[in-house]
């Protein structure tokens, strides 16, 4: 048996996506893998914790612990220079907390962090074996920043030039907590959090990339297979830090699908059907994060009927006008 520590950081609203993520992670794990799962949170209620506990218990190849972060970083979050929502991303104080794993896991030297807006498509245990002895963190390089330089345009010239080719995204990280503790990297992170001159448009990513500069490793793109990458690859002008082979490989052999922008519960990203199948299998509820039209299928049907009726009326009206014009001319 190989034990792998992995943590997540999300709020009460994200229980349902977390349930889908947890189920897919454990369902795809190889037989010799056991996950030590942790959730850093400040508001997940007992009922929702039990929902997640039940999924883990039923899978039988993991244990799950909730760690209350007791409002850590919430004051800084309120006053800091953070972007609090962009491109459908809803950032919360939990977004910051994931950077500070070293203090919440004093007895763990190496840990995986994962978002929960994902579906795991394969065993991901090999990720844990990647050597990051001399790095603070490894992540997936931003696949879009070369094509859309404005994604990093909030950074000062100095930081932009240092980070543009090495900037890692969120979603999945492998963290060397031992080295982060040894070199007091969390102090550096707190300075960045407090520094209002540094605009944190992507709160967690900006903090990690600046604090860990030059000691960042890179993971294969398969660990973040983006639903919209396939469409971007069709554009002749699309360029990336990743090769064409690596990008297609991430689509053909995904380890994790990351619904980074549009979410299955409030939009229709590619591969949403896989997410919905797990949602239905687990008999999860449609909570407040779901788009209204997904909650009430009836209104959707009425809307369609209304559209059809309107189209028929317009066609009839036009026909009538034509007949009248013809009649007058006669
Ligand atoms: Mn995400």
What is the quaternary state of this protein?
single chain
Q: Can you identify the CATH class of the largest domain? A: Alpha Beta
Q: Please report the distance between the alpha carbons of the first and last residues.
A: 90 Å
Element pattern in H and E: EHEHEHHHEEEHEHHHEHHEHHH
Low-pLDDT stretches: none
Strand content: 15-25%
Can you tell me the number of structural domains? 2
Total number of helical segments? 14
Radius of gyration: 23 Å
- What would the average pLDDT be, to the nearest integer? 92
Counting DSSP E segments of at least 2 residues, the number of strands comes to 9
What strand order characterises the main sheet? 3-2-1-4-7-6-8
Please state the structural category: alpha/beta
CATH architecture of the largest domain: Alpha-Beta Complex
Bound ligand species: manganese (II) ion
Helix content: 40-55%
Named CATH topology of the largest domain = Spore Coat Polysaccharide Biosynthesis Protein SpsA, Chain A
| Biggest sheet overview | 7 strands, mixed
In one word, what is the shape? globular
The CATH homologous superfamily name of the largest domain equals Spore Coat Polysaccharide Biosynthesis Protein SpsA, Chain A
